[in-house]
Design goal:
The structure is a homodimer. By secondary structure, the first copy, chain A, is an alpha/beta fold. In chain A, the strands form 2 sheets. A 6-stranded parallel β-sheet of chain A has the order 3-2-1-4-5-6, sandwiched between helices. Chain A has a 3-stranded mixed β-sheet with strand order 7-8-9, with helices on one face. Chain A contains 11 helices and 9 strands. Chain A folds into 2 domains: 172 residues, 3-Layer(aba) Sandwich (Rossmann fold); 108 residues, Orthogonal Bundle (6-phosphogluconate dehydrogenase C-terminal fold), CATH 1.10.3660.10.
């Protein structure tokens, strides 16, 4: 078949993203077969029923045997441990890629853990839902979205090309970016917003209002605003820890802005407030216009 | 007509909320006629065309003449000035109400500015859009929403009953609440979330990422998250100033939570992070379940 890019794909972690990769790759015949690895037999069985994988193993070593493409799709904090475990079992010429939200030094570490006859290509599809698990995997999860690939001087050009071809076939526009630049951008546009949503929920929990069914008193803002706070907590713990330095920088900036707003409120500085509010509105409108 | 609650309604400020009140009241024949007041003739003319009002004046004094219900629907910072201006022109037995997002001492002040032969009933329909203006006024804006009324010891029971009947007829469930309790709840569930969204936008503007079309790198979280930051800035300036004390209390609480999260990231305390993340997720799920 002309569309076939890989013979055997191993999906390590068959959740929302990994499950969707398997599902679309199988439907579009981008691979001959998809092998899944996970911890829970019931969920893997469900992934087979949903068409996300052909078969599965409860051992990552077994799952990668014979695979020419390995997709790491667990929470990003597990990547190093998995790379160590699968390294001796990878076949020569195999390509390892990932879908993690943190790149930077993580990419270097994974590269250093893999044998020299294997290529690693860091990847991050910009897609997600507030729900997790293979049950919400979907054939159009990546349609119209971007996938960032983060090649390094060690990345094999042919491997990069094949992984890019896969992500194009999965429906995304592929962008190449330096791993550290990726982490800086993500800290600003994704990691800080998520942290802010979690902080808002925690703040509400610390007030008496939390016991009074607060959504009754919200016109939808609270609901929209905190959609992200329903995301998988192990995934976000790993992101906050692994991109910690960049995120802390963003929190510092953000705390400065909060302090400014607070001072303007205390000083009853209406003109100063409207300046910030208008700027935010203009940026926001430029975001939704696209 | 049995459904008629008032003869002549004056809507002071014909925007999203005021325009929708007029529109629904006219369609449902809850009033015989609706007179609008605004600053811009073009917008008022548009409000007539859209069916939100029957006629208009560019002077609030003229707009309230002969009205038995006056609805204050400008940004909340203008209420006192308007109350002063219209006070001598109100007819005996008229009811003044408002749709402002801040109650508390504001209610007391407006009460004290109005003549004793007029009743004031504080009101706050929990409804809104990120867009403003009569163009987005809608016949179903209030359907299924709540409207909070904030009677005081001075509120006339018959006036309260009539305003409650109006809001029920407009589609809301009516809740009565102490004006100061209202402000505390709103500071938590609405005012802090809006401030947080504005602060996030301002933070993004202070990074280089703002120049790189950041929405490209966001899976939708940023878009949802900042929907509220597109709201009318004069309205939000007024809310931040008038409910300042309660909002500053909430900012303080929120800053404490941010500081805790930052410390846990710096300490690489995964267990501590997951505890907060899980709590947020549970609260969030309880919100969307309702």
């Amino acid at each position: 078949m002309k569309s076939e890019l890989f013979k055997q794909m191993a999906v390590i972690g068959v959740g929302l993203i990994g499950g969707s990769v398997g599902l679309i790759a199988r439907r579009k015949h981008l691979v001959r077969s998809v092998v899944g690895y996970g911890k829970k037999r019931g969920e893997l069985q469900r992934a087979v029923t949903l068409g996300a994988i052909d078969r599965y193993f409860l051992s990552p070593q077994k799952a990668v045997e014979g695979a020419d493409l390995i997709v790491l799709a667990t929470p990003v904090g597990m990547f190093e441990k998995i790379a160590c475990a699968i390294a001796p079992h990878l076949k020569e010429g195999a390509i390892v890629t990932d879908v993690g939200s943190v790149k930077g030094k993580e990419v270097e570490r994974i590269e250093s853990l893999l044998p020299s006859y294997v290529s690693f290509v860091g990847g991050h599809p910009i897609a997600g839902r507030e729900k997790s698990g293979v049950e919400v995997a979907s054939a159009d999860l990546f349609s119209g979205m971007r996938c960032i690939l983060t090649p390094t001087p060690r990345t094999h050009p042919a491997a990069l090309k094949k992984v890019a071809a896969l992500w194009k076939a999965l429906g995304t526009t592929v962008i190449e970016m330096d791993p550290l630049v990726h982490d800086q951008i993500m800290a600003a546009v994704s990691h800080l917003p998520h942290l802010v949503a979690y902080a808002l929920m925690e703040t509400l929990l610390n007030t008496r209002v939390a016991k009074q069914d607060p959504i009754r008193f919200s016109a939808g803002g609270l609901r929209d605003f905190t959609r992200v706070a329903a995301s998988a907590s192990d995934m976000w713990r790993d992101i906050f820890l692994l991109n910690g330095a960049r995120i802390v920088e963003m929190i510092d900036l953000y705390q400065g802005v909060l302090e400014t707003l607070k001072k303007k409120i205390i000083a009853q500085d209406g003109a100063g407030l409207i300046e910030i509010l208008d700027r935010a509105r203009v940026l926001r409108q430029s975001l939704i216009g696209k």
